[in-house]
Amino acid sequence: MSQSTMRGKVLVISGATRGIGKAILYRFAKEGVNVAFTYNSNEQEAQKIAEDVKNKYGIKAVPYQLNILEPETYKDLFKQIDEDFDRVDFFISNAIISGRAVVGGFGPFMRLKPKGLCNIYTATVTAFVMGAQEAAKRMEKVGGGSIISLSSTGNIVYTPNYAGHGTNKAAVETMVKYAAAELGEKGIRVNAVSGGPIDTDALKKFPNYEEVKAEVVERSPLNRMGEPEDLAGMCWFLCTDECSWLTGQTIVIDGGTSFQ
């Protein structure tokens, strides 16, 4: 799809101040798409990104604060977006939680605890549902759109300490299928993009980061780690008319590592 066809459309994306979310934001902005994006706490970085893409690409970009552990606040967020933008065409659920919020959810099976597991479900599955519902209401008014949830291969490949996250990635991928089945009649396509280990700040926080990186490079036939831009390209593709008959799918981008 040419830039002229996409220019003026609007992407809403959660968690876009770093890593995969930031790469997606820049990919869409480069093509002339206006961007409404969320951040958790770093307002300064969010404003800096907004100014950068506005200056570079001549688009509209507005950051909004969102805590995905309170997904019901998506209703208020979209009301704010309605005031700043005249439409919503694409929604990408990307934000994740880390740190204290995942204590009891990130660890070996025998150390998993209810609160941590519930927090991961809230941030991964419930946040996707609440955001997608609000986005779909707006997309219906403009004749359709594309919704994407980010996922990871931790639900198909054993990853140490990742049981809490992996099971919730499986859950959100199934939720994507249900959403696709029910929103298709509105012209809305819903898919997931599942990444293998991607070289981001989040991964660098893993205590065994260097070990993970070395293993991924060794396992991948392409002999490298995944980069945020690898997922950004697929998210862009899924929002173009090139994918007008693709819905309810999980696209795995893992450098071939899940087959090894």
UniProtKB/TrEMBL annotation:
The keyword Kinase does not apply. It comes from the Bacteria. One of its GO terms (molecular function) is oxidoreductase activity, acting on the CH-OH group of donors, NAD or NADP as acceptor. Keywords: Oxidoreductase. InterPro entries: NAD(P)-bd_dom_sf, SDR_fam. NCBIfam families: PRK08416.1. Belongs to the short-chain dehydrogenases/reductases (SDR) family. This is 7-alpha-hydroxysteroid dehydrogenase.
